[in-house]
Amino acid sequence: MTDLKFEDSLVRLEQIVSQLEAGNLPLEESLKVFEEGIALARHCARYLEEAEKRIEILTRDDQGALGATPFTWEPEGEA
Hints:
By secondary structure, the chain is mainly alpha-helical.
């Protein structure tokens, strides 16, 4: 699963959620799909944690030293 791209994982997770919400799968199949979804969710969480660490490493303070700076985001049109 480590070779899956983040975006591909999200697409598959959305498919899994749709399948489970539809409620048409037999119990055993639902459990298999649910387990796959949990694994994908954990994969995405790890990916996001690593991305956050990379951003923190690339952030420098006023003196040029590396440091962690919280990222604040304002959606377009709301600034």
